[in-house]
Amino acid sequence: MDNEYNNDDLYSSSDEEDEKSIVDSQNDDDDSEKELEINDENDVDIDDINENANNDDDEYDDDGDEENEHVTQIGGVGPNPNLLDEDSDEDEDYQSAYLQKFNAEINKNYILDFHPECAIHNYDEITLLTKVIRDKNNNIIDDLHKTIPFLTKYERTRVIGQRAKQINTGAKAFIKVPENVIDGYLVAELELMQKRIPFIIRRPTPGGGCEYWNLKDLEIISF
Q: Which stretches of sequence are listed as region Disordered (predicted)?
């Protein structure tokens, strides 16, 4: 009897476990189906939202195009080829007139008209302008040299100062310097007294002109 009872109990317990597993699996299937239905509904809602947004954008673009066409037909903002051509023609005329005026201003030689003393001659011209014409009595009869043929104190100061600066910076002396003389200023004075300094004096004259004198052609006066 005990064996029969035990077998019956085993069968009944196994049957109950099978029923529970079947019920659990059915419940799991029902839950998964519900989740799938919810996901499908969400996907449908998202697709509907995207389609509505695209439709709204298309309607907005269509409205914008219609408004632009309406404004262009009225003559408001739309480009007008005739106006663009007129503007370009006016710009070209203005630029050409400006360039002509600019060229005319360049052709005017303001330096020679108002500051002729600023005009710079080249080396060949200065060489010719420094030549002094004299008569048989050694008198100057040159039209390009009308000022006195003496070295002024201002010219003397400028010549000695410039030459002393050159000597102090390493320039070679044009005379034989005594051994006890080492100052550039004293060497410059000795060169000036012997007329060995190859300087050209430029003297401004009334009327905007100027004279060019070789330093050796001017008489040196002791002040």
A: 1-93
Alpha carbon of 33 to those of 26, 28, 128: distances in Å?
A: 11, 9, 117
* Residue that has been written with the tokens 């401004």 in this structure: 204
Residue ranges covered by each domain of the chain = 2-77, 121-217
pTM score, whole prediction: 0.50
Chain-centre distance of CA 175, in angstroms?
52
Check: CB of residue 211 under 8 Å from CB of residue 155. no
Name the strand (E) or helix (H) holding 4.
Answer: helix 2-74
User: If one looks up domain 121-217 in CATH, what number appears?
Assistant: 3.90.940.10
Contacts of 144 (CB under 8 A, 6+ apart): 129, 211, 212
pLDDT of residue 83: 52
